[in-house]
Amino acid sequence: MPAFTAPDGTSLAYHVTGDGPPLVCLPGGPMQDSVYLGDLGGLTARRTVVRLDLRGTGGSAVPEDTTSYRCDRQVGDVEALRAELGLERMDLLAHCAGANLAALYTARHPERVRRLALVTPSVFAVGLRITAEDRLETARLRRDEPWFAPAYASLEAITGGRATAGDWDAAAPFWYGRWDDGARAFRAAEQRLRNDEAAALYAADGAFDPDATRAALAAFPSPVLVLTGEYDVAAPPRAMKEYADLFPRAEPVAQSGAGHVPWRDGPGRFASAVAGFLDETGGADGP
Q1: DSSP string of 27-48?
Q2: What angle do CA 70, 190, 77 make, to 5 degrees?
Q3: pLDDT tens for residues 222-267?
């Protein structure tokens, strides 16, 4: 796999698949091997997907200074990848916790982002509040599912600050549009692929300055897609509408029947929504 050198000397790997204009993709987790993104629901048929393995994950090296796992300190890694690819401007997609890194990068380098797609984004970088009722209201859309009652009780414990380790496992069905063997296997793989030490440092003190980031994003002139799942308790539609409102030119989209990983729950709908957004004015700049 190709690799490049980050500003601090850490070797970082990336993966290139598909055909079409390039789309740089930042994984979530936080700090999870980018392999879980797969082909993003078939998006590789229309885009050359460039997945970055964040430092200490996948094929990327563990940095000498592990405090560099902090989200804001990885902005330079994204900029180094852009330079490595020879892109004057790039289309950027980020999932979940990776959206925090994408938001910080966009705030710092707005001229380098042609279009920004945030998929079920985490909101720490922009300081939005997602209430317990936001999550529970979304969860109640699943009340007819056979697993609902115990999962909902555990979600109530989580949102009420009473969670045990078992509650996180019990509430897992809410993260997926369908809780089946495929979703169970996907969840198990996610847990194996995450760098827990890095994840614990990702949002360390000083990582985020929400007021400054919101001010910068309010001046970001390019189009933004904020895509969530109808059933996503991690990124409920109300909060995602608020996120979209931070930008001058943002489009909030809720994918029906989808959870936190919408390209698994409706691959065709996901790929069409993202590709349609990216293609509205053509591809990203080339080398």
Answers
A1: --TTTB-GGGGTTTTTGGGTSE
A2: 30
A3: 999 999 999 999 999 899 999 999 999 999 999 999 999 999 999 9
